[in-house]
């Protein structure tokens, strides 16, 4: 009888602890590095230049820019929490100086260009509490149309050499390209 009680207690304990985990998020978190794939391909003595944490909403057949993501409004740039950008060293974004540190990244999508916003506030859910007074700077970058659909919002870096790179923010058939130098 005692062993049945102990087994019941163990089973109940496991059931309670399993229920404390959240279900899988529909917008999974991803990380982009400059240099690209840094965590996987790191060489001895090498350090990252930039790391970006972001969530990846899916297109799922929806109209995205100008619809799901309205033009002319501050967007969290992905899903869930606002994008977090960590500069491991001083860099320039579209010619603007950015000191080493951690920042949030918001955008204002438009049809032909996006405003990229680097903000000093961190740990936002969405852009609901976004405060323009805490912007470090804003820059405008052109957008391009893609021939193929990007199903999940994605951020990727391409190292162009000579201490320059481009950060690409793509979703649906749109990509914004942000120049970076370091």
General description of the model:
By secondary structure, this protein is mainly beta. The protein has one domain (2-181). It has helices at residues 2-18, 38-41; strands at residues 29-34, 50-55, 83-87, 91-93, 96-98, 101-109, 113-119, 135-161, 164-181. The longest helix has 17 residues, at 2-18. 23% of the residues are buried. The model is unreliable at 9-17 (pLDDT under 50).
Short structural summary:
This protein is mostly beta strands and 182 residues long.
End-to-end Cα distance: 70 Å
Helix/strand order, N-terminal first? HEHEEEEEEEE
> How many structural domains are formed by the residues?
1
Count the helices. How many? 2
Helix content: 10-25%
Major β-sheet annotation = 9 strands, antiparallel
The shape is globular
Oligomer: single chain
**Total number of β-strand segments?**
9
**Estimated share of beta-strand residues:** over 45%
Radius of gyration: 20 Å
Mean pLDDT: 88
Strand numbers in spatial order across the main sheet = 1-2-3-6-7-8-9-4-5
SS content category: mainly beta
Low-confidence spans? 9-17
Please supply descriptive tags for the structure shown above.
single chain, 182 residues, mainly beta, 46% strand, globular
Task: Describe how the helices and strands are arranged.
Blueprint: H1 2-18, E1 29-34, H2 38-41, E2 50-55, E3 83-87, E4 91-93, E5 96-98, E6 101-109, E7 113-119, E8 135-161, E9 164-181
Antiparallel strand pairs: 1-2, 2-3, 3-6, 4-5, 4-9, 6-7, 7-8, 8-9
């Amino acid at each position: 009888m005692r062993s049945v009680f102990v087994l019941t207690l163990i089973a109940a304990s496991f059931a309670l602890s399993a229920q404390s985990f959240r279900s899988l998020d529909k917008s999974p978190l991803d990380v982009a590095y400059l240099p690209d794939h840094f965590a996987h391909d790191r060489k001895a003595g090498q350090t990252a230049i930039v790391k970006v944490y972001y969530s990846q909403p899916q297109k799922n057949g929806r109209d995205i820019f100008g619809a799901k993501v309205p033009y002319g409004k501050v967007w969290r740039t992905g899903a869930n929490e606002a994008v977090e950008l960590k500069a491991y060293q001083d860099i320039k974004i579209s010619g603007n100086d950015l000191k080493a540190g951690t920042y949030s990244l918001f955008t204002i999508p438009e049809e032909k260009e996006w405003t990229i916003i680097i903000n000093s506030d961190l740990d936002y859910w969405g852009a609901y509490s976004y405060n323009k007074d805490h912007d470090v700077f804003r820059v405008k970058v052109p957008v391009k149309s893609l021939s193929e659909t990007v199903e999940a919002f994605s951020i990727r870096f391409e190292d162009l050499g000579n201490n320059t790179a481009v950060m690409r923010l793509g979703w649906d058939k749109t990509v914004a390209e942000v120049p970076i130098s370091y």
